[in-house]
């Protein structure tokens, strides 16, 4: 029997984490999604203990501080979760020879471009949330040479609060809806994000040319 492929999913109770856990994975893949009481991403010792106990083949970091507005007054917490923790995870993954996939955001850009952003476009975050996520990307790539960063935008799905669920709820409660009209984005299904993450992760595990 082939050895199991252990994959660590952080943020397993969020939209993307739950979508990842619902997917059909190949035989032999074992998903681990410990909660905060088991794995403290701000504590290098906690991360080290997690890697000491399981031979992870890959890490998908979907954990994030996502309160965009609150981050402006809670900078330390945002940078701890979105910047420091990914760096610690990536270092542990690199030391263990595990693949690393970091989930990031379109908030690393300033939104001034009129067309969809590409990977090579210059980053220019306008707020603390975007700055913390960009710092997380940089921390991961600095310590893990094969890490992949996936930037998402306007993730929607059946779990947790999101723009679509809020609009559906308000539409049922109010005769007229008033929303901002100066924002442009790309609503993205959490299930589609999860499927893409699965493909990237399995490709990274297989190695170059597979």
Automatic annotation (TrEMBL):
**The species this protein was found in:** Sphingomonas taxi
The EC category is oxidoreductase
Role, per record: Catalyzes the reduction of dTDP-6-deoxy-L-lyxo-4-hexulose to yield dTDP-L-rhamnose.
BP GO terms, sorted: dTDP-rhamnose biosynthetic process
Which InterPro entries would you find in this protein's record? dTDP_dehydrorham_reduct, NAD(P)-bd_dom_sf, RmlD-like-bd
Q: Needs which cofactor? A: Mg(2+)
Pathway connected to this protein: Carbohydrate biosynthesis; dTDP-L-rhamnose biosynthesis
Q: Give the family per the record.
A: Belongs to the dTDP-4-dehydrorhamnose reductase family.
Q: A Pfam family name for this chain?
A: RmlD_sub_bind
Keywords, A to Z, come to: NADP, Oxidoreductase
Please state what the protein is called: dTDP-4-dehydrorhamnose reductase
Which catalysed reactions does the entry list for this protein? dTDP-beta-L-rhamnose + NADP(+) = dTDP-4-dehydro-beta-L-rhamnose + NADPH + H(+)
Catalytic activity, EC: 1.1.1.133
């Amino acid at each position: 029997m082939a050895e199991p492929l252990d994959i660590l999913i952080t943020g397993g109770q969020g939209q993307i984490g739950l979508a990842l856990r619902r997917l059909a994975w190949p035989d032999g893949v074992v998903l681990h999604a410990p909660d905060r009481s088991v794995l403290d991403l701000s504590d290098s010792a906690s991360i080290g203990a997690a890697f000491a106990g399981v031979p992870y083949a890959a890490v998908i970091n979907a954990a994030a501080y996502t309160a965009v507005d609150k981050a402006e007054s809670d900078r330390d917490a945002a940078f701890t979760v979105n910047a420091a923790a990914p760096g610690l995870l990536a270092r542990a993954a690199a030391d263990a020879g595990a693949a690393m996939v970091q989930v990031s955001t379109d908030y690393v850009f300033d939104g001034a471009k009129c067309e969809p952003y590409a990977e090579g476009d210059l980053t220019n975050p306008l707020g603390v949330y975007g700055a913390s996520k960009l710092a997380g990307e940089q921390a991961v790539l600095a310590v893990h040479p094969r890490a992949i960063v996936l930037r998402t935008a306007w993730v929607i799905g059946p779990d947790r609060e999101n723009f679509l669920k809020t609009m559906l709820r308000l539409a049922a409660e109010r005769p007229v809806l008033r929303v901002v009209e100066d924002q442009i984005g790309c609503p993205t299904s959490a299930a589609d994000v999860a499927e893409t993450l699965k493909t990237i992760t399995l490709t990274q595990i297989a190695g170059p040319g597979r």
